[in-house]
């Protein structure tokens, strides 16, 4: 009996010490495990939220948003860019041997996309260094994909920056950004809104800005620190743009890229959904 008493007393004091330690823990020790961002889930949720804000601002019914999402899944399943087994339609490549064409092809292939299904055009008239066009053709019931590259603008960049820009464009393409917005616009025009009313609404500005942040960040998350760093260099040495209706300011894009680069350095970003 005496032994049991001693044992109990010792147990009591152990619990007491443990409680004391737990009580002091938040002040004395930093958490050993850093929180991990599950990027796929994170960006999907952010996209849903940006889309929902636009829907709310313009009174678009939930069913319409669900229809747009379903249409995207369906069109993507029949898009030769994502399915090498599907024969692509007519594709134009204006400068097949140009180093920038080869770099674009490499970026598409690296992302697992079918490079032979994408038209690649050198075009001095586009704004910026590169842009992606995805157009739904009712005639063929397919999406046509074009990547436009401005060689004069690209000449101002290092090869790493050129690749990073093309990776950013590849992300727009892969996320079907242009198609999603296209369907959204069709509905908004049907509801009687003008292009100006749509473009200037804060919910739409947020939606457009999110698409740019996501393309920057996915390029870095999927392709690595060097691509993220090159995009950041490009934004800080060449772009330095103020915010527009369609694009966030360079300062904000750099700040957000810094956060992603920190995650990549710390290994606190994961693919799992
Ligand atoms: Zn972009």
In short:
This protein has 273 residues and is mostly helical.
Structure description:
There is one protein chain. With 273 residues, the protein is mostly helical. The protein has one domain (2-270). It has helices at 2-28, 39-57, 62-77, 99-110, 151-154, 159-174, 177-190, 195-200, 202-223, 225-239, 250-266, and strands at residues 37-38, 118-122, 130-137, 142-149, 269-270. β3 (130-137) and β4 form a beta hairpin. The termini are far apart. The model is unreliable at 1-26 (pLDDT under 50). The structure holds zinc ion (ZN). Zinc ion is lined by residues 168, 172, 212, 215. Residues 168, 172, 212, 215 line the site of zinc ion.
Q: End-to-end span in angstroms?
A: 56 Å
* Major sheet: 3 strands, mixed
- Give the percentage of residues in beta strands: 5-15%
Oligomer: single chain
Provide mean pLDDT, rounded.
88
Rg of Cα set = 25 Å
**Strand/helix succession:** HEHHHEEEHHHHHHHE
Shape field: globular
Q: Helix proportion of residues, in percent?
A: 55-70%
Structural class: mainly alpha
SS field, number of helical segments: 11
Bound molecules: zinc ion
Query: How many distinct beta strands?
Result: 5
Give me the side-by-side strand order of the main sheet.
Answer: 2-4-3
- The number of domains is 1
List segments where confidence is low: pLDDT < 50 over at least 5 consecutive residues.
Answer: 1-26
